[in-house]
Amino acid sequence: MIQTRRILPYISRRFKSNSTVIGIDLGTTNSAVAFMNSKNQPQIIENEEGKRTTPSIVAYKQNDILVGLPAKRQALINPENTFFATKRLIGRKFTDPEVQRDLDNVSYKIIPNNSNDAVLKSTNNQTISPSEISSKILEKMTSIANNYLDEKIDKAVVTVPAYFNDSQRQATKNSGKLIGLDILRVINEPTAAALAYGCDKSRKEGIIAVFDFGGGTFDISILDIEDGVFEVRATNGNTHLGGEDFDILIMNWILKKFKLETGIDLSNDRIAIQRIREISEMAKIELDHNEKFEINLPFISQDHHINYTITSSEFDEMSLPIIEKCIDPVKRCIKDADLKIKDIDEVLLVGGMTRMPKIRQVVEELFNKKPSTAVNPDEAVALGAAIQGGVLSGHMKNVVLLDVTPLSLGIETYGGIFSPLIPRNSAVPVKKEQIFSTAIDGQTGVEIRCYQGERTLVKDNKLIGQFKLGNIPKGPKGTPQISVEFEIDADGIINVSASDKTKYPKDSPHYGKPNKVSIQVTEIGLTDSEVEKMIKESESNKLKDQEMRKVYEHASRGEILVTDTEIALIQFGELMEEKDKEDTKTAIDDAKNLIDDIRSNKTQDVNLLNNKLNEMQKICMEAIKKVAIKQQQEET
Ligand code: AMP
User: Fold this and answer.
1) Which parts of the chain are coiled coil (predicted)?
2) Would you say the CB of residue 27 lies under 6 angstroms from ligand 1?
């Protein structure tokens, strides 16, 4: 996963097009779409209802599929087929605790599919993946753009929470594929917001915190701006903290009060829950600027009505524990960026929840300064995505997002040594190829084990994928030309392939066929702190690792020499004098035992190993020499 992001002066990109590349903020609660207008400014496109954001809600109704406001409007009468906040489920397993937590809080059914992925189930037993829901929303946003621009739009930049792992990013890209929308890039929401903010050229330099509190996720990013160059120094957050939690808080407050008064538990009454949930969100929003809010829900259950009043101070008090969940990620993020709170020059608010006065107050206290709202919190992300779309289509030439790899990527080579192909901090997209070969004569297959990390030995790094390349034509060790290629695309998705460049002989059944195997690495999912831990460990172990590398290289060389000697023993053993044969065997065993001791860290005495190997080779060569002399004598 890509952890660090920089925005640098324009560098050439692989894609150029004159068609519009729209920016879509595919939000948990609401989505927005924007484009670069003729004045080279990002502009939000209003939907057919004249609204600048569209609810991320999809409803299945008989043979009809409703998206956006029409879906939201009918939610009350069709709660079990109205799917909202499904972005939280995308790319997750059913058993994921985050999914389990949602089971009781949504009005629709979530079930596991055959692969244990969390999927949705409608009342007519249709199973729908969260990616399909995203694709419906993307389709809607694209059609809003199509109508406004009067142009067939088929390319977009889509935003995702910073904490989305590779499989969630991939699932988002696949949502585009389902509707023929080419998602050129997925970029992080706070990074997009920062881009929108960066368009305001008045700020030349400084440290910016992007505090993004939306409907379903919370992200905090620290950016460093210098002479128009933006660098995101750290990101942190919580994929399961958002506006919904506040709605649920008020909902539970109502349910508890109602049960206490009437003895009736409404928690299994889906329609009642939907009504309570809607009014809870309304209460939350209204309490921004009102001291109190009347919760009126007539006939909620038989002839029972709800008529409660909630005050803003009551709401503030009950929400404080949720709001305080933002504090830790903020502190960690600032620490990761190697900064102190006082170093932050400006705090940018993004996401609908940042309209809540209590949140603004906590942010102000936390950063010790008034947060800025220069960019509309609901629109910043889509505007930033549109700017990135403008860059990709070649319409904007002064900024670009450049992602870098947080850790080195490479493969295991003989003896457990890590051979990096893509060093850490390489700019992506990136493609690197290296040629490897076999270590043993007649080897017909190689196991490619891919790792991420900075340590010399693969055992100290993270295994991210493995596969086998077989059907290598038999040949002496070191002769096959096995090309291993790592490619990271602009979304941070990693593909690894291995191909044998040797051509098959004419009599081979594989003649004329290429020998290539590829895998896509999914779910690396390392957090910033895990990456940092790995880097720190590699720094503190640098000298030790260098020593170990030398020792392991000696051991690997030793293993190759032992194998050579064993092969010689098989070829000439029969002809050797019995004592020479026994001495060679003993020398091989001695060398093997010492290599085992080195591999299991019992000793690191490479001088002793080299002596043993020299001795083994000498004994074997002497024995073979004797065989050769004997054969010559017999011939004459
Ligand atoms: P977003 O994901 O950025 O669209 O944010 C949506 C979330 O913000 C939802 O939970 C909304 O209920 C919440 N929200 C929108 N407007 C307000 C407001 N004025 N006050 C409090 N919360 C709001």
Assistant:
1) 581-626
2) yes
